[in-house]
């Protein structure tokens, strides 16, 4: 039976009983219900179209996992020549029961900066993947990679060689420099305070050896956001968050601002902007919006609301926050401000950024326990030890909650 279902306004077909290429999976069928997109629908469609036994086996094993409430995948080692990472191995512990899914390895492929692709490259990648692997792709996984999910070990090298010839490279895995992600940056966003795409590209080129050959205490990840809106979620999901920043005043087009106030009214300005400024540094003077820039914490709220008239200042660069991560040993952590402003205009600025990053990574590798992220190491030994170790001066901007401390007030 083929049923049509609506998933967020998009009609998709799902096959939900026997008589087809697939075996009955009554528990997985439950996951096709509801208004949200279903990964089961996607896998079933792909399996019916490509008739790949591997996909059928994965669905069968998953159904069995739901019945027994047990996972049956285990890791191991699969690599391409010259690479120590980039392929996540998955072998079934119950291959005798479901031989069609005895191996289901994942190739992590690095994304282009800003996730900019052309359609030819994507089509070629899909064709190669359907030829060698399952055809199942996650774009993009939590790692930032393009995840090519489901290939047997014997086919990994040939598949990798083909995508590598087409210009793609494997991402990181294990105790290594991990795949990085950048926002669309100056290519398509007016808020970008530095060229996220260029910095992402240069940094990952520099650390390419550390991506492919794991040699760190644990994983280390850069993420590049062009402004404090942090569209890549760098502060909470990367060890070194690179956030676009300005250090002069917010730029205001007074004529456009007058027009905006006329169009939306003063009450709207007060309710949606002035009262929502986290540090209450916006006021009204003779019907015009005035910002006390020395006490602005660069949250972007006013700029996001009044994009026509406000933009980040002219003196632009980036801030570096260190130590963000999701749950592991000490729980989720946000990055700590390490460098409030770093100029990023020339090749020399890029080289200086890379040198500083290398110094931090070196300090971490010398001082960390095995399997310890840099934020955890800093938490354990103290921020002062870290700053002394990498040669940075302490700054009042590094306190975690400056506005809750009555003795400090930033000058700029
Ligand atoms: Fe634009 Fe800022 Fe988001 Fe980058 S992080 S896409 S610059 S809003
Ligand atoms: Fe206030 Fe945020 Fe605007 Fe700064 S950027 S003035 S803190 S709303």
Name some characteristics of this structure.
412 residues, alpha+beta, Alpha-Beta Plaits, Sulfite Reductase Hemoprotein, domain 1, 4 domains, 17 strands, globular, binds iron/sulfur cluster
Textual characterization of the structure:
The chain folds into 4 domains: 3-68, no CATH class; 73-165, Alpha-Beta Plaits (2-Layer Sandwich), CATH 3.30.70; 181-247 and 316-398, Sulfite Reductase Hemoprotein, domain 1, CATH 3.30.413; 251-311, 2-Layer Sandwich (Alpha-Beta Plaits). The radius of gyration is 25 Å and the shape is globular. The chain contains 14 helices and 17 strands. The chain has helices at 26-30, 39-50, 53-68, 119-132, 153-165, 196-206, 208-212, 234-237, 254-264, 266-272, 301-305, 347-367, 374-381, 383-390, and strands at 2-7, 10-15, 73-74, 87-88, 91-92, 105-109, 136-139, 146-151, 181-182, 222-225, 240-246, 251-252, 282-285, 288-291, 310-311, 316-322, 336-343. Helices cover 34% and strands 18% of the residues. The protein is of the alpha+beta class and 412 residues long. It binds iron/sulfur cluster (2 copies). One iron/sulfur cluster is lined by residues 183-185, 189, 191-192, 225-227, 229-231, 244. Residues 183-185, 189, 191-192, 225-227, 229-231, 244 line the site of one iron/sulfur cluster (SF4).
